Amino acid sequence: MEFLQTLFDEIIGFLGISQALEILRSGDFSSFTTYEGIVSLIYPIIPLLIILELILGLIYKKPQTKVYKVNFLIYVFNRFIGRFIAIAMVALCIGLFQQYAPFQTTMKWYWIVYGYVVWELGHFVYHYLGHKVRLFWCLHSTHHAPEDMNLSVTHAHFFLEAPYADTIRTTICILLGVHPELLFLIMFIDGTYGAFIHVGENLLKNGRLGFLNKIILTPSHHRVHHAKNPLYMDTNFCNLLNIWDRVFKTYQEEKHDIKIEYGITREMDSGNFMDVYFGEIVALAKDVWRAPGLANKFLYLIMPPGWNHTGEHKTAKVARKSYLESM
């Protein structure tokens, strides 16, 4: 019975309906009009869309079984080993750095806009480093390994990526005056939208969202980010506001004549949990072991993926430059 109860609790937790169930059981339906109540209604949207997307995939005979299988295993694995680490890092960063902020925001609308712009800067920094520093890429590559796009990809993360990401994002936000209360609101909005932009073609064929494609980052932009095409690699690092991609010239729209190829450039078995989760770590360890001298060994840790001590680099920057020159 204890196993069944644990399984039931995990299913309820995945669906995100535990808080809504508590309100329903209390009988105080007016609670749904509060912030907590609204949040309880928003949380289940992404899990339910994942289920709908899977059903539509079966109907369209595009089930993407391999992607769902590996991402489900990643979700289960991460639930056991990395459940509270990210939360602890956020709390630690707030405690350490809030005292050094030159000012504090409030919940006024203009501070919310400011806070979100700052959050996007923090997200850009973490995400950019995740692609440009190979040690961090080992954590982030799990998210890019799936060779199809669907909402389950939002759960495909190495368990240490969230603590590393939230450490950078929280530190930047707190030092630039974003109050923790506002930070948590932004994190909730960003987490929900950040899951949505992984929606696949089974549920949303055209991810451009009409005129919004020119204003915010859409599923189309994020599909580009997950592509291994030379033109698309290492672009669109933002999550909702693509302001920093435009500032730092990493913005790239989806081209109608270039079909997106998902995945990473390393030869791998995207249906193998061990290869998806630990493959880049193994590859990095091999390169460090074989590299001559301590300097080269260290450089393999901090240089971009594809860097080689011989000078024969195969980085995303080299691949993109070569592609653009050949056009």
How would you characterize the overall build of this protein?
The chain has a domain at 83-273. It has 15 helices and no strands. It has helices at 2-15, 18-26, 35-42, 45-59, 65-81, 85-97, 109-132, 134-144, 161-175, 180-196, 219-225, 243-247, 273-290, 293-302, 316-326. Helix 2 crosses helix 3 (35-42). The chain starts with a helix and ends with a helix. The radius of gyration is 21 Å and the shape is globular. The model has no long low-confidence stretch (mean pLDDT 91). The longest helix has 24 residues, at 109-132. It is mainly alpha-helical and 327 residues long.
Short description:
With 327 residues, the chain is mainly α. The protein has helices at 2-15, 18-26, 35-42, 45-59, 65-81, 85-97, 109-132, 134-144, 161-175, 180-196, 219-225, 243-247, 273-290, 293-302, 316-326.
